[in-house]
Amino acid sequence: MKNLKDGKEIYDNIKIPEEMEQNINDLIENNKNRADTFSQSKVIEVPISKRRRPAAYLRYTAAAAAVVLISFTTVLNSSEVFAMSAAKLPVVGAIARVLTVRSYESSEDNKNITVKVPEVVMDGDQNDAIESSTSGAVNSAGSNDTQAGVTGTPPIVADVNARIDKIVEDYLADAKARMQADKEAFLSTGGTEEEWNKRDLEINVDYEVKYDQGNRLSLMLSADESWYGAYDVKYFFNLDLAENRELTLKDVLGEDYVKIADDSIIRQMKERADANPDYVYWGVTDNDSSMEGFTTVDENTKFYLNSEGKPVVYFDKYEVAPGFMGAQEFVIE
Amino acid sequence: MNGLNTTIYDELVGHILKHQDKFYRIAYCYVYQKDAALDIVQNAICKALENYQNLRNENAITTWFYRILINESLSYLRKSKREVLCEPGEIREDIYYEEAYEAKLEVYQLVCNLPEQMKSIVILHYFEGLTLKEISEALDVNLNTVKTRLYAALRRLKKEMEVEI
Predict the structure, then answer these.
(1) A313 - beta bridge partners?
(2) ipTM surpassing 0.85, yes or no?
(3) Closest chain A residue to B36, measured at CA
(4) Is-contact B33 B73, C-beta < 8 A?
(5) Could you tell me how far CA A315 lies from the centroid of its own chain?
(6) Average pLDDT in the A234-238 region?
(7) Which of A2, A12, A16, A105 to mutate to test the interface with B (most CBs of B within 10 A)?
């Protein structure tokens, strides 16, 4: 067909953005580092709260760090001597730690399920420290094993851990149900079992420690299914361990937190929309839109603390802007 | 990483580096927007690098990667919740434009505005030169369905082009 060749000529003349090649090289390089981390079985110190990477790579960084943590917990469990010495190390800077308590990869129906469930554990009395100086490798990444943590665990920590467990359990059940429904649809529309098995489907549950200093702990739990971006979910847990309760925006920003956060968010939305003509914030930079967008923060607004301890308000995709803009985050100064 | 997997991983990286322009063009045909297309390509690459273990056979890299890329493109569209129609006005800036292209743009636009299922097949077959069998692997659709959809697409294009003229 002659006419389709015309279309191809346009297609072949689509400009390739200059930055793409470099971006892709970076991606590959980054992934290579991650793959290397996988192959190391040694215990490595992970200064969780100091991790800072570009946002695009966070997911991979988190995965790598989680893998390291797994190897750490494994060692804790497998060597009694190691476990005892690690449990007694002094801890600097934070009174709580986040460990991967359950981590598994399973394959049901040839579909991969990767789960890393975090649990908050309290570090014991810091005075009751130092008997072993042999575990240099463990260093300040050392933490109590779960058991030692139980004695001093405030109710809020137990509560958060229970909620995390529940969320993970529910998500996995839903995701598996969706997968099963898809499979039935696939088979009933002429697909074969064999073809289904060739499809790559995954469920991933992972977490990231956003802030972990003093009494404050900020944790993000994320879950996704590989081909169903619409089911990505993120949960944030912010704790004030000394007060034994959840940390609120009001705690961080003061009595005036609604006004402070609203003003800052609206200002940043306008700045971003000015800088990028494709950006739209429903109801803020685009009043014609029938979409309901941002109005105000309240006690249920999602946020986390960044590495500097500043609150970052988080909106899911579609919450305040079109999905192509992705999730939106606003640091409140 | 061990022996065999390393080979497949390296093959995959080689494939990505070599064909990245194609990936971008395909993604562009779904979103008609540079940044969005870049995002899609990069996400697809991340997924491929993460999941290369699922790739058992290096001969399948091409179709396997196309599948990831197209899935990414479609899921991006679904997530962005907006119907994107291809308009020549915006596209002129994203191609190496010449005036002679004016009529050709319409053909490209008609292809891009086909329903998703037909569009992917036409792009892969006529623009990327994949065989129908490769397309059936890449889209995970059986061969007869690919044929049916391709013919339906061609009938439709033909009709629309007649109307245009």
Answers:
(1) A303, A330
(2) yes
(3) A324
(4) no
(5) 14
(6) 90
(7) A16
Q: Nearest by CB to A4, from B96, B101, B107: name it.
A: B107
CATH of domain A97-245: 3.30.565.40
Q: Out of A284-293, B59-68, B95-104, which region has the weakest mean confidence (pLDDT)? A: A284-293
CA–CA separation, B104 and A4 (whole Å):
9
Fold of A251-331: Actin; Chain A, domain 4 (3.90.640)
For domain B3-164, give the CATH superfamily.
PhyR, sigma-like (SL) domain (1.20.140.160)
CA-nearest residue to B52 within chain A is A200
Q: What integer best gives the mean pLDDT of chain A?
A: 70
The pLDDT tens digits of the residues spanning A157-192 come to 888 888 888 888 888 888 888 778 777 877 877 777
Pairing of strands A202-213, A111-122: parallel
Residues with Cβ within 8 Å of A9's Cβ and at least 6 positions away in sequence, in order, are B101, B104
Residue A31 token pair: 């992934």
Which of A164, A119, A126 lies closest to A146, judged by CA?
A: A119
Domain ranges of chain A: 2-86, 97-245, 251-331
A95 has a pLDDT exceeding 60: no
pLDDT band at A326 (very low <50, low <70, confident <90, very high): confident
Q: Assign A129 a pLDDT band (cuts: 50, 70, 90).
A: very low
- Does the distance separating the beta carbons of A21 and B122 come in below 8 Å? no
Task: Choose from A1, A2, A3 for mutation: most chain B CBs within 10 A.
Answer: A3
Contact call for A20 and B54, based on CB within 8 A: no
Q: What is the pLDDT of residues B89-129, one digit of tens each?
A: 777 788 887 777 887 888 888 898 898 889 999 999 989 98
Contacts of B67 (CB under 8 A, 6+ apart): B137, B138, B139, B140
Nearest CB to A229 within list B42, B75, B82: B75
Q: What is the reported pLDDT for B124?
A: 94
User: Chain A interface, mutation test: which of B31, B140, B143, most A Cβ atoms within 10 Å?
Assistant: B140
